[in-house]
Structure formats: C-alpha cells, structure tokens
Amino acid sequence: MMVIMKQGHSQQEIDDVLRRLEEVGLKGHTIVGVERTVVAVVGSIYPELGDELETMSGVGSTVRISVPHKLASREIKPEDTIVKVGSVEIGAGKTVIIAGPCAVESEEQIMETARAVKDAGANLLRGGAFKPRSSPYSFRGLGEEGLRLLAQASKETGLPFMTEVMSVREVDLVAKYADVLQIGTRNAQNFMLLEEVGRTGKPVLLKRGLASQIEDWLLAAEYILNIGNPNVILCERGIRTFETATRNTFDINAIPLVKQISHLPIVADPSHGTGKWTLVGPVSLAAIAAGADGVILEVHPNPDHALSDGAQSLNFRRFRELMEQARVVAEAVDRPLLSAATEPTPA
Amino acid sequence: MMVIMKQGHSQQEIDDVLRRLEEVGLKGHTIVGVERTVVAVVGSIYPELGDELETMSGVGSTVRISVPHKLASREIKPEDTIVKVGSVEIGAGKTVIIAGPCAVESEEQIMETARAVKDAGANLLRGGAFKPRSSPYSFRGLGEEGLRLLAQASKETGLPFMTEVMSVREVDLVAKYADVLQIGTRNAQNFMLLEEVGRTGKPVLLKRGLASQIEDWLLAAEYILNIGNPNVILCERGIRTFETATRNTFDINAIPLVKQISHLPIVADPSHGTGKWTLVGPVSLAAIAAGADGVILEVHPNPDHALSDGAQSLNFRRFRELMEQARVVAEAVDRPLLSAATEPTPA
Amino acid sequence: MMVIMKQGHSQQEIDDVLRRLEEVGLKGHTIVGVERTVVAVVGSIYPELGDELETMSGVGSTVRISVPHKLASREIKPEDTIVKVGSVEIGAGKTVIIAGPCAVESEEQIMETARAVKDAGANLLRGGAFKPRSSPYSFRGLGEEGLRLLAQASKETGLPFMTEVMSVREVDLVAKYADVLQIGTRNAQNFMLLEEVGRTGKPVLLKRGLASQIEDWLLAAEYILNIGNPNVILCERGIRTFETATRNTFDINAIPLVKQISHLPIVADPSHGTGKWTLVGPVSLAAIAAGADGVILEVHPNPDHALSDGAQSLNFRRFRELMEQARVVAEAVDRPLLSAATEPTPA
Amino acid sequence: MMVIMKQGHSQQEIDDVLRRLEEVGLKGHTIVGVERTVVAVVGSIYPELGDELETMSGVGSTVRISVPHKLASREIKPEDTIVKVGSVEIGAGKTVIIAGPCAVESEEQIMETARAVKDAGANLLRGGAFKPRSSPYSFRGLGEEGLRLLAQASKETGLPFMTEVMSVREVDLVAKYADVLQIGTRNAQNFMLLEEVGRTGKPVLLKRGLASQIEDWLLAAEYILNIGNPNVILCERGIRTFETATRNTFDINAIPLVKQISHLPIVADPSHGTGKWTLVGPVSLAAIAAGADGVILEVHPNPDHALSDGAQSLNFRRFRELMEQARVVAEAVDRPLLSAATEPTPA
C-alpha cells in the first residue's frame, strides 16, 4: 500500500502515520517526491487499513497495490481451473452449452425441453425450481416438486442439471438433487449463502451481481473458495446501466478480462444479458468468440406461454439453429463445442 | 396495459393478440391511430403479461399503465404510514436521528457511543453484530455477543436499537433482541429474507439496493407488506454510478419522490451514501431539507481505529456539531428534530 | 401517445386534456379501464407534447408510442443502407477493417503504419489530426499538418482515410482532405457540428456518446440524415458504467439491436471500448460474431511510445495476428472480410 | 506516480522501466515489498506516462499521485474564487438565485418572467436563445432575436443575464449580449468551445457532463482557466444513471466535495437534475443546505404551454413560495440569499 500525503503536510503527520503502521505490525518507507510525499507500506496489510489511514490528518489518499482476491487470482494459481460436472468438464478449452427453461412449470414441459436440448447438443440442463422475482405477485416456482422433475429429466437424458438456490434454508435440499448450485444475481453478495453453498463441495455457478464490479465478483467467489470449495464457475449475465433498450448490458469485456486475471472458468448468460430473444443468438456467438467457457440459454417449448422470462427464451427450432451457428464460431476460435454427454450422470 | 402493434402488422396478428387476451380472461380494445394501432387491455393484468405479448408476431411493445407495487403506493393508502419503535414515531413529521457505530466492537465502545449519541439527542441506536463484507478476510462482527451488548446499551440509555440481519437463519435470533431489523443493500432483493423479517411483525428498515430503481425498491417493500407487516421504513443509502470520487452516489431526488408516490417513511444514510465523513454533514442537512423522515449516522469513539467503515464515521465532537446544524435546518423546513427519547424501550 | 390519468381524476381534468389536444390539432379517445382511464392521442404528435401534458392536473403520465427517430428507422426504410467510401462498401454484408494510429505523430509513423495495415488487409486508414483530450495538458494533434500526412499515406496506399473533426470551424478544412468525417464521443450530441458535417455530404462516422442511450444516438444520426446526408455509419465504442476495470463498457447488445431497428451500418471500436490492448482482440472477434459491419482498430508501430492511447493500441505483429483470427470468425458468421482495396481512392 | 510491477517480474523488466523513465527525463526509485515491487517516479510527469508504462512487459499497473487538474485545485489556490457578474458576487458566502425560462419564446414571455423573478428576489436572469435538443424536430430557440429580448429584459429589470452558447461560431455573438456564457451538458467536453468561451474573459457557467466524473469536470474547467479566464462557475445538473424515475440523478455529494477540492463556486440546477417540477423545490433546498453557492431555476408564466422543459418549470406562484423556503434554509446554514440586485447591469 502507498499512503499519499497531502501537499503541505507536517513532519508530525508523517510521524503519526509511521507510528500507526508500527502499532499494527507494518513498516513504512517515506519517499519524498517533487510534488508529493509518499509512504510505502511493507508487510501483511489487512483490508481496512486504507480506510483507517485516510482518516488521519495530513493523509491525502491511499492506494492498494496487491489484489484483494487471493484464491481466485492467477497470481496464486496460474493454471486454469477445470470444474467437472459428471463427465462434463467446464474450463478445459471446449465450449459447454447449458440449456433449459427459466422455470420448471410441469413434467411435460421439462421432459420435452430436456430431450430437445439434449438432441440439439446441450451438455447440461438448467431449470428453476425456486425463482427470485422482483414482485411478490409473480410465479415463484414449484419448489421441491420442481427439483424432482429436474432430477427425472436429468436421469432420462443423462444431462447433469443446474438450478438456483435462494436461501441458506434450501441449500441442503437443493444440493440433494442438483449437480450444480446456481447463485443468482440478486444473491451475488449474500455472503452467508455463498459460504453455505461452498460447504456442500458441489460445483457452484456464481452469477455476477447487477451492480458488481469485477473485483466484487471475484471477492464473492473468494467466499466459496475460502471455505474449501474450488469448484466455482463464474457467469457474466449483464450489468445495470443507463441503457434501457435492453434489460441489462452484457459486459463482453468481462469475458477476456476475467480469463486473464482469474483461473476460474467463465460462462455467458445472454438470455438475461439482453432480455430479448432476438439478441440472444448474436450475443451468444459474441461470447464464444470472446473466449467464454460456455453459454447458458433459456429454452422453452412455447415461449409465448412461459410463466417467466418468455421474452428472452428460445423455442426449440431457434435453439437448434443457434447450436449450428455456435458450432461453427466455436471452431473458428479453436474452442469447439463439447460433444454432448452420452451417459447418465452419476447419482 | 397498452399493446403497441408494429407498423405493417396484419389483421391476423391483431386477432391473435385479442384471442390470447381472452384466453387469460382479459379484454382488448383496438384503437387505430395514424401511425400505430394499439390494443388497450382491460382487466386484472398479471406481471408477466407484457413480456409474453411482446414475443408475439406483429407486437412492437407493451406499456404497463398501473403501478406494480400496490401496498406501498399512495394510490392505495393516501395517508402517511407512521412506524412506532418504542416511543419513537418515524414518519410523523419530525426528523428522527439514528446513530451508532458501524460495527459493535466491544462493550466499552458500544456503551460509550450509546451514551454519547443519546446525550447529543439521538432517538435510536444503531450498530452491526452481523456484518456483510465484500471480502471474506474483513471483520465480520461479533454475532450474538454483539446483539447482547446492543441490548445492554439500549437498556442503559433507553434508546431502542436497530441492527442488520443477514440471513433467514438469524432472523429469530436478531428479532429476539432488536427493536428494528435492518435489511442491508446487498440483501435488498433477497426475497426470502424479506418475507422472513416481515413475518416477525417488527419494524424493518429496508435499504435500497446498489442497483435498485425506485420501483424495484418499492417492490421489495411489497414483499414485507404483503406478508402482513406494515412497519416498513425505507432507507436511501446511495446507488452505484460511474462516479468514483465518492463511495456511492446519494440519490437526493429519491427522498421527495418516494414521499410523493409512497406512504412509507424514508430515512437517509449519508455515511454509506458518501463514504467520506467530510461529506456526511452537508449531505445529512441536504436530506433533512429535502424532507427525509430521519437520518442514520455512523458514530465511533475513535474512527481512525474503527474495525469497519472508519472513513465514513463521525467522532463524538463532530456528531454533536452536526446535531446542532441539523436542529436548525430541520426547523427551517418545519420538520423539527424529535425530542430525544427519555424512557427505556419496552422489552 | 397515451395519456394515463391518475386514479381519482375528475371528469373536468379529462375534458381539459381533450381541449388541450384540440388546441394543438390533435384528437383524443378516452378509454375507461378497471384501474385507469387512458386518453389515446391520434394525429401528428410533436416531441414536447408528453412533457406538456404531464404538467396538467389529473394526468399521471404519458407514453410515446411512435419512435422519435424517423429517418434512421427501419420502419421508414427497411433495406440496409450501404455507405460507399471510394470502392469500399460499408454495410453490404462484408466485414470492413479500419485501422491506424490514434494520433498522427510524424510522417514516418503514419506512412509506416498505413503500409503495415494495408499489407495486413485493412480497407480504410484512420488517424487523428485534431485530438480531443480530457486534459488541456495532453498532446492535441498536429492539426492541418496531420491531415496532409494522412492524405499522403492514403494516396500511397490507396486506402481512403477517416479522421475526427472537433468543431464547426474545422469542418471545411477536414472535409477537403478526408474521405470519412468522424464525430467523437464527446461531440456525440454537439448538434451544430452534426448538421455541419451533414452538409458536406461526405460519409460521417458517428460515435456513440459516453452516456447516450441507443435512442439518443439514433436521434443524433437523425440530425445528419435530416440535413440530407444519408451516409451515416454508427460506431459503438463503449459506454460509461460503474465498472472501472476497463476504460469503458463495450455494449455488445447494441450491435444486433441497432441492426434490427435501423438500416444504418454499425461498426465496432474495441480499442476505446476496452482501453486495454489485451482485450482488443477478443472483443473485435465478438463484435464480428455479433454482426458488426466493421471494426476500427488502433495500430501503432511502437505502442509503448505512442503520444496517445498507447495502452489500447496494437503493434503490427499483433494486428496481423488479429486479422488472421478475424478472417476465420467473419467467415464463420458468413460475413467475410472485405478484400483489401487495390486501387487508389478517387481524389 | 507509482509503477507497480507484476509478481514474478524479472530484473530486466525493472531495468527497462528505469531506462524508459530516464529517456523522458524522470527518475525511478525501486521499493521491494513483501508481495510487490514498486517503482516510485519522481519528476514532472506528463499525462500519458501511465498508459505508456502499463504497456511494458512486467508492469502490472500505475497509480497517479498528483491531481491532473492544477488550476482548479485548492492545492494551488486555497482561497475561494469569487466570480463577479455586474454587482452580483458568486462564491462569496451568499446564496445566489438565477431564474428564468428554459427558452425565450416571445417578448411578452421573457419580460413578464424577468419581472416576476426579480420581484421574488432573483439575482440573475437566465433564458435560452440557442437550444440543444436531442431531436432535430424540437424547438431550437429564437437565436439572435432571443438574445435581444434577453438584453431588453435585463436592461429593464437590472438583472444581468446568462444564456447558453452551443458552438464556436456563436461565441462572439452571444458574448456581445450576455453577462454569463453557459456551456451545456452536451458540450461539457467540447474542448474547442471551452477555450473559445474562455478567450472572451466573460464569466462562464460550466455544466457537468451527463457522464462526467468530477475529475473530468474539473479538467474541463481547466481548459477555460488555462486560457487565462478565472471566472468559472461550476454547475451540478444531474448525471445519467440507471434510475429512470427521474430525468437525471442529481449528485448532491458533488456540492460539498467540489467545495473541498476546488476553489471555484458551484451552483445547482435542480430543474434538469430532477426533470419534475414537483421535485425542484425539495432538491433546491437540499442543494442550499449542502452548501451550494447558488441555484438555477426554470420559471415560466405558464409551464403547461412552454415550448421546452415545461415539465420541470415552476410557475410564478410556485417560484415565489420556493424563494420563501429557500430564504429560511439559506439562513439556517448561514449562507443567506444575496439581496436582489437593485441597479442596472453595466452595458
């Protein structure tokens, strides 16, 4: 950390900073520049130190130099993390497709969709049993019945499945059924939930928060990693900006940037990232071209009658067409689609 | 709701919309304009209808006309809601001051602070026992021990107290001790937690989410109101914008706007809304001048040594000075400071 | 336009709205719904009408139904606009590459770069002679000398060139030299400049403003189209959001969305859209996969010594490598790179 | 400046940085920490240096330590700048009120409004002759005729007047008539216009850009100061955020923050900062309470019929009522309203 003194500071103020550093077991080196005096801090710095020092008289600002997320960083672990879900490897250089309805609505709907996405080449099934909704008056999912139907669809098709967990209370229940636990954008900084899903040891798909900077997102991953669970998959799903023509602004920059600074796999969710099915195709291809480890897609037998997120869901025909285009683009960037799973997931 | 057809739509497409509306028990009136044809929808509209209709061929867009938050709206309940906490009334035309440390750190720290804020005229005590932190490596609070110390400080000073609850698992525990349950910004759309704190019947202070539009925030309040708990206090605490010179952007517009569209009381949190103690004073006065029902302030015996949020905390002297200014501004807008509580809170 | 009355409005207030509409030559149809009464307005609506009506007693809100940008919209002109620059066609289904240094620094630098980008397959040359800089203390370009050097490089390589014009005063000067006039992000709503470059009849590349919604951007294009110049090329270059890890947030959603609602060609500027050369490659490929009509790239012989934007510029080797990847991705989405220009541009 | 090396950098990479610094006349001091090595740069740093160094191998990031805006900073000039407009002093501890219509529409309208705002206690008149409009189809002002009418109203009432200048071409014309030249939000980084208005030597009111960080805004002021014109008045008018319930988000934090870091006066524009007249009153009082040197208000004889911005304009009665409240709040914070001008402005 660097402590930048105000112009016109006194020697006393410098001395106070140095003494304060000593109190907490750190050491400061004073560097006198033309315009500024800076104190370089050496030692094991704790997160609040900067805020504390900035309240001291004579201190202008402080600058953190080391990154706060340790375990998620490539500086600690340079090689890619590969998360295994059954026989599916995420982060191993192939593009993984995760598809299914926003919410499980009925046995017929989930079975039909699971078969359709499997036939078109998807590697994992997704579907919501517990649904976070902005309004209490919206459809909020089938709960455990939804989990049972997902498990049945998974068993029949051999596709492992992913579903959201919304509260610490449901973690054990969801973990009993699901292959991947999803943390939604509104829980992206629900730290107690992060630790609880971390404890299950199961792969966790961690969506970026609506207002999360990339650093916040990696620090959220840190909560899961720090509890001893290395199986974190990051998911870019759009951030909230001033643009209202789309539901969210899909941050394409985040895909290559996260790959550069972190070893964790990252997948794209263009359904939420755009909010319009007419944009889902082009943005999926963009994410693949930018190096995403996978794409999550909302697919519904009849999006016009979906109980949630119909506007951003693909029907079966459009999903098959997109898979064909995805295949070609993924090969163009030398990250071919992972061959569809052909065997049932282990129980 | 209005369904706006694309230019060049066919009669068949209009008919499809009308039939779809009938299927779900609604009625459509077609209005043919010079540039556009519009279908006005009459009946009890459910939240997803717009999304569904927008996926239909020939439909350009839909426009919701009625507000989605019912119970929080002045249209349903024109008169102000007054939330009572012990003998303190929030929303009754007087300005309420809530003060205390960001986190409870020790018996000495909380007792000393409680006495200081009471002596300066605060009406409620605040303090964190369970702390959400962006990094897992930061101080995360004393837990139940913190609750006990808050209760002790509350008992001695007679100030009711407010503290954050972070997870459904702690709701009962926190409710056993606290007079007001606080929902933090990172849980602003943690819908399960909202319902759970709602069930306690205790007053709930609901912070605005970092990325919450005012409508999202009122819909979050709706979760609590809908469970049967009318005691919701809204709290503006700044939103995330592109400006990095301050920790958040305090949305002063939200204060009068919320007062106009909702009957719920709204208080301001300039400590988080600015992130710098040098700005807390002016923004507190601004919030009072704009009509806030109260102000929440972080106060610490020695902010330079606070375990969290020291940079935005006032020391005792600065808090007393601010109280003097607040008193004058509150009177200028005819919303005088509520006289300090003089009796112990009921158990 | 729809005028949505408040709940509890009086008949008198409806009558006032109807009379006001008549005053300005419009007609209103009253629709009484269960929850709301709405007045549908028929006739030629002017932009301020909504604001005016919203100030009237009893009026809750108004909703515009027709799009405000007429000439830029596909509703007016369904077929794609193709902008011709010499023999280069932008918007004709092939991917166009525009490359060159951020700023012209010297004859050697621009000649060397022009040859390098031509050899690697670029179709147009770019380079700044007048540079907008956030700080008055930064390098602000060579002015007319820069234009002369660009013209010389253009003549030698046969690549038409594009350069920014910053003020109405330089429009004639820049138009004398340049093949395409560029409007920078900070002038994206400098309406006088938009009209002035429009009057030259030359192709205009219009960057999106840092804070422009897509509708603002299309309305800015409307200024140029409305003056009688159809040769507008839109350029997505990132918007300002809360994310600070990248210089801007490249809005990938905007590429397919603009293609859907407007007939104008759109190109991507990943150099400014990311601000880091390590991200330029992946985001360029993403933009191509999403359907961009072209990509603008900053290329410099020695980015470490560039006088501006070195951090986001590619050196020659990296540019050549990116061109190879771009070629493959462009073919994968059936929008092959346009063959490099082989003839000198017409004077 | 601090250059922070990547972990695992080589000695060769450090040496390259030191040599590069020497090449440009600077000196580097290497500091080896536990986690990181840092090179502290001493000497006269130019703006691009950081970007350049960040492209070098082994360099992780750079941190600027001195502020880039020199002339606007309190570090250079600790005492407040007072801008004089006729007999009106802005920045001298009293609260100044600037009022008038958004656009001049007719002689009757401007004369009537000028008398009304003067009688209610305003110190300066405002009014638009050249209007920037998002759409080319909106009313764009009366041009020079508008300036003449403003001058006439100014002469009759003795109120100096302020009006916007939109292009370098109109600077001389507008400066011939107006007492204060206003730079609008869309020209906030139109650097050529900034220098041109700077050259007139007249007071300049510089609105913050829709997407301007406070640092960008002070750097824009720097363009005017650097040309030799010290008479800059900053104007906070709201920024663009994700919140759509208001036209802009008025950044109340900016008022005290700018007062702390800059010596320039700052005024508030709650009309644009909120976009709704029902919010203008409370936010005006908030700005005064937060320490603004003045408030700009849109006032119109009949807002329902205004040709622009009617929705955010006050009628005469509401303006008078607000003035009464403003007087009380301004006194509460010991920044009383400046007594209304009683003498004609000098020609």
Order of helices and strands of chain A: EHEEHEEEEHEHEHEHEHEHEHHEH
Give the name of the CATH architecture of the largest domain in chain A.
Answer: Alpha-Beta Barrel
Number of helices of chain A: 11
Low-confidence stretches of chain A: 341-347
- Write out the CATH superfamily name of the largest domain in chain A: Aldolase class I
Strand order of the largest sheet of chain A: 7-8-9-10-11-12-13-14
> Do you know the CATH topology of the largest domain in chain A?
TIM Barrel
Fold and architecture overview:
4 copies of one chain form a homotetramer. The N and C termini of chain A lie far apart (49 Å). Chain A is built from 11 helices and 14 strands. Residues 341-347 of chain A have low confidence and may be disordered. In chain A, the strands form 3 sheets. An 8-stranded parallel beta barrel of chain A has the order 7-8-9-10-11-12-13-14, surrounded by 6 helices. A 4-stranded antiparallel β-sheet of chain A has the order 2-3-1-4. In chain A, strands 5-6 form a two-stranded antiparallel ribbon. Chain A has 2 domains: 2-63, Phospho-2-dehydro-3-deoxyheptonate aldolase, domain 1 (Alpha-Beta Plaits, 2-Layer Sandwich), CATH 3.30.70; 83-332, TIM Barrel, CATH 3.20.20.70. In chain A, helix 3 packs parallel to helix 11. Chain A is α/β, with parallel strands linked by helices and 347 residues long. Helix content of chain A is 35%, strand content 17%. Chains in contact: A-B, A-C, A-D, B-C, B-D, C-D. Chains A and B meet through helix 2, helix 6 and helix 7 of A and helix 2, helix 6 and helix 7 of B.
